[in-house]
Amino acid sequence: MFNLRRVILIGALITLVIFPATVLAEPITVNWWFAHGGRLGEKVQEIVANYNASQSQYKVVATYKGNYTDTMNAGIAAFRSKNPPHILQVFEVGTASMMAAKGAVKPVYEVMAESGLPFDPKVYLSTVTGYYTAPDGRMLSMPFNSSTPVLYYNLEAFKKAGLNPDKPPKTWTEVAEYSRKLVAAGYPGGFSTAWISWIHLENFSAWHNVPIGTKANGFGGMDTEFVFNSPLHVKHIQKLADWQKEKVFVYGGRRNKGNALFSSGQVAMYTESSAGYAGFKKTCKFPFRTSMLPYWPDAGAPQNTIIGGASLWVMQGHSAEEYKGVASFFNYLSKPEVQADWHQFTGYLPITHAAYELTKKQGFYEKNPGTETALIQMTMNNPTANSKGLRFGNFVQMRAIMYDTLESIFAEKQSAQQGLNDAVGKGNKLLRQFEKAYK
Amino acid sequence: MEKRVIFKNRVLPYLLVAPQIIITLVFFIWPAFMALYQSVQQEDPFGLKTTFVGLDNFAYIFTDAIYLNSIKVTMIFSFSVAVIAMSTALFLAAMADRVIRGATTYKTFIIWPYAVAPVAAAVLWYFLFNPTVGMISFFLKAIGIDWNFTLKGGQAMVLVILASAWRQISYNFLFFLAGLQAIPKSFIEAAAIDGASPAKRFWTIAFPLLSPTFFFLLVMNLVYAFCDTFGVIHAITEGGPNEATNIMVFKIYHDSFESLDLGGSAAQSVILMFIVIALTVIQFRYIERKVHY
User: Is A331 exposed, middle or buried (0-12, 13-18, 19+ CB in 10 A)?
Assistant: First the structure.
């Protein structure tokens, strides 16, 4: 015969297994897919653990999905199989694709408004959020890790070449002069760069207040066209090509593959993301500092530089309760203490004014000279239509075209004028293709 | 009289081949049809809006200078890989075939690279030839070669060809050696008695008898160079500099997974698929028939 007690017990166990949430009132899970490996990834997990410990209603689960491209692809595949995460980290060049995917993403301003939690877009640095904001000023994604390019220079090499380490070069003319002195002092090269398209075409344009594309760099509509073949652009790229002959400039390869040129002391100056600071701290056996990105004095510079990095997008297809959890987590991420800690640990920019002030108050910049450079660059002027950021479809392909073009110019297969004209032509074709896919 | 095993049960044979058929359908046939389907669509990455565009994607890629360049690069790359990998392997096999003492040791070492994953091998080559920190580039610079494959397309091409061929040499070596050992010794001995030199014996007896192996390997190497060398390109050059090493399979990856252009990359993979199918057909229909065994 059945023992009634045992039946009840088994029934209770089954209920517990099938509907644990109803019995134990578990916190609501919010999934976040991110793209930081190594020490940065550990930092992300630390932030999440602190958030989970700070309250009991929601539980954020952060999962590493590989590099930026892998993470974005994982998110897209998950959306297509109707099982997307709540929060997806997407790099800045994926912004236009995410924005255009209206049925797949839920804009951050909407998430925040529906949650009823306090949210004031003005507390964020406008040069950071501008990249992720609709033309009407509404925030589409939450900036997370943003950086901007700065000039790194080798103090030891400066001393050897008789250059004043407290007077880093301000203009490109000075960079060339310094480089010649460095080469004369026996260094194999003057300067090199990482992320050449991001720094020497995209940021170059914002820094000199000239457009990369029409329609406010694409913010004003998908019918934008590239214009980075202006006389100023041509002059700069042609100079880089010419400087190779005197070893003033050395091309180090795509992405940040040239970093070893700087850390091994083969060039004494290097333009790279402010977020490269921690890496150089580890790999360089000599003291170095950062200063502002050089510019051409006769143009509109210095305006302000633009960002790179990634932001957090909220995906469609979840319940209102879960979105409330997302909003609560975003509020936590924006806290000055959390942001200041992230900024000081990684070299990425803080996203709020309060976090910037807090870091200043803590005396971080005095203890670590040069770390404020990126922020000064970003905030020194109010951004213009040319320096707010950029929003072009198919931009990942465009970056590849830019690399190809610059490489052929540096290999002297074509002049800067020819090369940039070509790249603009190819790029406009990509823009029209993107327009067609989304219209 | 032929001896055959005959299945009495009519269902059993189908059951036995079923796993293989299912695997082929799920992992090969179905994706191939999906690629065909995708290649006539224009779709955003999230699949929110799909439009039938007919052959627009094909029209686009065949007017795209980057794609046309990629075809040219693929041809140069693939044939160079095949020629280098096969000639080196044939040379090594001919030598190893004559070695008597320590033959196993030589063979083991020659086969070894095949065990190295293409990406791992590529990273190795990348570091050896890295213009900044590479050991070999250091020596190249010392003898006056301005080695910088990040800017010089020709050098980049040579490097990826060597890196891709290196691993394939082992594979080819195995087949050539087996082929050489299958040649009846009496042929070689007869020629030797007639006074033919080792080189003469090789070219007039061994080489023609190797022709089936030769053509089999040619097709295998071309297919390898077309499809499996993705990891090498990805780790060493990323298709650069200035598209000099942008082979078709890398461009497909780049356009679909990095650029999220699904229709365009599907069209490209359909083209690549047809090239590989054509190679296989040539292998089975014509070459195998004309080769004398």
Answer: middle
The CATH number that domain A11-147+308-367 falls under is 3.40.190.10
Does the CB of A433 have a partner CB in chain B at under 8 Å? yes
Q: Which residue has the tokens 């069209």?
A: B267
Residue B151 to residue A410, Cβ atoms within 8 A: yes
CB contact under 8 A, A254 and B254: no
Q: How far apart are CA A420 and CA A426, in angstroms?
A: 10
Amino acid at A431: L
Q: Please check the confidence at residue A86 and state whether its pLDDT lies above 90.
A: yes
Quick check: A437 and B239 CB within 8 A?
Answer: no
Return the domain boundaries, chain A: 11-147+308-367, 149-305+393-438
Angle between helices A395-410 and A231-243 (to 10 degrees): 50
Question: Are B48 and A433 within 8 A, CB to CB?
Answer: no
Examine residue B241 and say whether the peptide bond preceding it is cis (omega within 30 degrees of 0).
Answer: yes
Which residues on chain A are in Cβ contact (under 8 Å) with B42?
Answer: 436-437
Pairing between β-strand A267-273 and β-strand A149-154 as defined by DSSP bridges: antiparallel
Residue of chain A whose alpha carbon sits nearest to that of B64: A426
Interchain pair A400, B152: CB under 8 A = no
C-beta atoms of B132 and A254 within 8 A: no
The CATH number given to B64-290 is 1.10.3720.10
- For residue B144 the two structure tokens come to 């006056």
Closest-CA distance, A240 to chain B, in angstroms, reads 14
pTM here is: 0.79
Chain B CB contacts of A252 under 8 Å are 132, 150
Q: Does the pLDDT value for residue B128 go beyond 50?
A: yes
Mutation target for B interface from A401, A403, A422: give the one with most B CBs within 10 A: A403
Q: How many Cα atoms within 13 Å fall on the side-chain side of residue A24?
A: 13
The model's pLDDT over A264-286, given as tens digits with 9 standing for 90+, comes to 999 999 999 998 887 888 889 99
Element (H, E) at A58: strand A58-64
Q: Quote the pLDDT of residue A1.
A: 44
- How is residue A210 annotated by DSSP? -
Helix, strand and coil in chain B, % to nearest 5: 75, 0, 25
Q: Give the pLDDT confidence of A133-179 residue by residue, as tens digits.
A: 887 888 999 999 999 999 999 999 999 999 999 899 999 999 999 99
- The answer to whether the CB of A365 falls within 8 A of the CB of A359 is yes
The topology under which CATH files domain A149-305+393-438 is D-Maltodextrin-Binding Protein; domain 2 (3.40.190)
